[in-house]
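hey m, so remember when u said the tokens were messed up on ur end? i reran from scratch. heres the input so u can diff it against urs
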Amino acid sequence: METSGRAFFAGGWGMFFGIIGLLGLSGGCEFRAGMERPSPSSDSIRADAPSQIASDARFTMNKGGKPRAMIRAERMEQYETEDSTYSVWRSLSDTGRVRSYVFDTEGDSSATIVADSVVFFSQDGRFEAYGNVIVVTDENRRLESEHLTWNQFDRTIRTRRFVHITTPTEDVRGNGLVADEDLETYQIGRFEAEVEVDEDTSET
């Protein structure tokens, strides 16, 4: 089966995905790609054989008539096992990247996530980004790491890996992170930081 895409996700649609499935979405979701379905067989549902393959794919998620997330990648593969369904988004070239877009409750842009590959576990509502991961928000905050986990239910970003966060006033490095998806608030385990101080501020 052939199709395509790049993306990110958010919101509380665990049951929604569980019932409809990642690629057969309707009523508020859109998927574009040239799809081919393998002939049904006893081997069609296997961890090592994708049930769907898409090239140049895009997946859009809407909530209440407003965009919530979008994924775009050069290749998408969906896998089904006895206890889970997940999709793998990846590039087909050295320069290609998987791009995920997250929108806030008002439908405005919140963050863009760029990575070498993305795995989305629909039943768990969990998004995993791998390889040179970069998160950029509209408030000019930037996060860099080799791996991030995003949870659609509590809208958090987590990792146990090294992270580098830069904002207009801070430069923070450390290992381990729990943050809001817009990077407005975050906690880092072991870290070092540089903070810009306004020298004109009077001392009390």
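this time it looks ok to me. The longest helix spans residues 14-20. if urs says something different then somethings off w ur setup not the seq
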